[in-house]
Amino acid sequence: MRLPTRMSYCRMYNSDVYCYADVAGGWTTHVAHRGPCSGETYNDCTLTSFRARLTTLRAAGYDIPEFVFDRIDEEILSAKST
């Protein structure tokens, strides 16, 4: 698996989550200390499950910028074409 070239998808200064491709594998998401998932940390093993997790968090009211989803979608398409 090839890790993305950028370090993180977003940080808590511009969203309610900090998420990144983890060097230990998968994609890790740290959730801000507010709401029903307050302070939780998740690790998803696929980009698809990572995207689904962020979609669920957004639906729960967490602020996650659209550019994060755009970037994940680009990476999913890129992985399918290789």
What report would you give on this structure?
The chain has 82 residues and is of the alpha+beta class. It has one domain (8-81). The chain is built from two helices and four strands; from the N terminus they run ββββαα. The mean pLDDT is 91.
Brief description of this entry?
The chain has 82 residues and is of the alpha+beta class. It contains two helices and four strands.
The overall strand count is 4
| Strand percent estimate | 15-25%
**Helix/sheet category:** alpha+beta
Sheet with most strands: strand arrangement: 1-2-3-4
Helix content: 25-40%
Mean pLDDT value: 91
Features:
single chain, 82 residues, alpha+beta, 4-stranded antiparallel beta sheet, 35% helix, globular
Task: Give the topology, please.
Blueprint: E1 8-10, E2 17-21, E3 27-31, E4 41-44, H1 47-59, H2 66-81
Antiparallel strand pairs: 1-2, 2-3, 3-4
Helix pairs in contact: 1-2
